[in-house]
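Field reference: sequence -> structure
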Amino acid sequence: MLTKYGQNFPSPEVVYFSDFLVKINRRDREQTRVLLVTDKALYNLMPNEFGKCKRRIKLDEIASISVSQLSDEFVVHVPSEYDYRYKSSKKVKIAELVSHSR
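Structure field:
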């Protein structure tokens, strides 16, 4: 999957984190996804087809990540496109990883 969608020049992408989580769409519908964080991008993958990338966001395009204090939800803010709303018990780890990787 990274060979097809990744930025592998001058060096290949390195995977930092991968896990199942819940994406909440615009209609508040929950959808299971796989979140993959590399040293260059964040990937939203289909859970049964890891080779199918729904969206790739370069880390430098992410403005910030908002983490809820009341629930497991967090939002990835992408000013040039649209934001992603997720739910994961590992939200703090994901936010820290993305922030330090940029």
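Note: The helical segments are 2-5, 91-101.
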